[in-house]
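input
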Amino acid sequence: MAEIKNICFFASYYSFAARSLMESYETILSENVNLFLFCPQSDIEKFNLKRVQKFSYYDKYTLLFDLRSFCKANNIDLIVNVAGSGSTSFLLVFSKLFTKMKYMAFQHGTFFWRLKDINSFPFFAFTIVHNLKHLFLFISQFFMERLLLSSINLTKRIKRLFFLNKNKIFYLTSAINTNFFKPKDKELARKKLEISRDEKVILYSGRIAYLKGSDFLYKIVEKNPDKKFIFIGDLIDKKFKKPFKNLIILPNKSQKELIYYYSAADLFIFLSRTEGNPLVPREAMCCHLPCLLSDIDALTSYKHSIIVPFNTKKIQEAIDKFFEMSEKEREKLGKKCREYVVKESSYQALKNNYRKYFLDF
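output
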């Protein structure tokens, strides 16, 4: 059995999710393992990490050789992607060729979208381009030691697709810091955010864009003038330029700030068209906030959540049914949501599996 002492994580770009993943590795993986991050120079300061040794590259045209040289100079035993498409897989395969270094792919997104999920021409064209970007994974599967997937439903599908290497494929969800994401007192949270006690509040956090279901979010805001909607994230969908009296759009918030929004809201809505295993809904569930989620592979496995199809009428019916519940029933549902995430996605629950898949070869 090979001993893993030095692990290099490669990130082709910065994202909030990528930083959260790196923070979980710092906590979960054994302290006698050296952790390195190789990322663009423009993003290195954004990865505010404690244990990880950070290194950067400047030129994407020499990256193939720079990464390989870095791994050799630092005696890297295992290289893992933090995020990326099939092109990233090609890069990491090249880095390990003719060396003893191992390569493990950890895919947090849905890298082959299903045609049956398409319900518009723009999405169809986008899906074709997206799937073509990941074609190299069909080749790289033969060079990697393991392929980890963060969704149980996606794992089953990819095992059928990569049937020649199904014994290399494992399910390992991304971890949530459940000691950090805990509910605040709802009344105090609303007071801090200047939300009145009797308002019905629906929260969304993420990019306000078509792939995240912005067209359905728009219709739901229109149909519910009696409810207060708070959207947190980058505004991409231009339809939302039209002002709504019942909608507040806020820029991205820190994790500490998000906890207050999760605690103050009544319902979290997340109608994304494609996901791997997103952090945000599970963070909300940790704060006792029930979730209304779209019917896609990554989300249907979330116990105690409300699953809806991409149908405005069905979404509205689910919202109406939720607000017909008594306050005690909603509180009970919120507590069950947290119990589920703690059991399935907490650092403590996942520690053994993370160490097994990252360190035992």
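quick obs: Residues 28 and 351 are 6 Å apart (CA to CA).
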